[in-house]
Specification:
single chain; 76 residues; mainly alpha; 2 helices
């Protein structure tokens, strides 16, 4: 049994097209804003991670400097 092809895509009315286009533009701008906010969050996290790594390196240097100042009797 073959179904007739009567359902052709129809072109939306001009007002509907304008409304849909306006909604798409608004959504695009909202996504652009959200992506910018995410970029700022990522930059902040990258800076935080970098600061934490720097703190760990400095602490390791302090530990090594403290060990190098000990006499051989203190180390044993």
């Amino acid at each position: 049994m073959e179904l007739p092809m009567t359902k052709q895509p129809r072109i939306p009315e001009k007002e509907t097209s304008k409304r849909l286009l306006a909604n798409l533009r608004k959504t695009r701008l909202e996504m652009q804003e959200f992506n910018q906010e995410l970029a700022e969050i990522n930059a902040g996290l990258a800076q935080y991670i970098s600061q934490q790594q720097l703190k760990r390196v400095r602490k390791s240097l302090e530990v090594l400097a403290g060990e190098s100042q000990k006499s051989p009797e203190e180390i044993s």
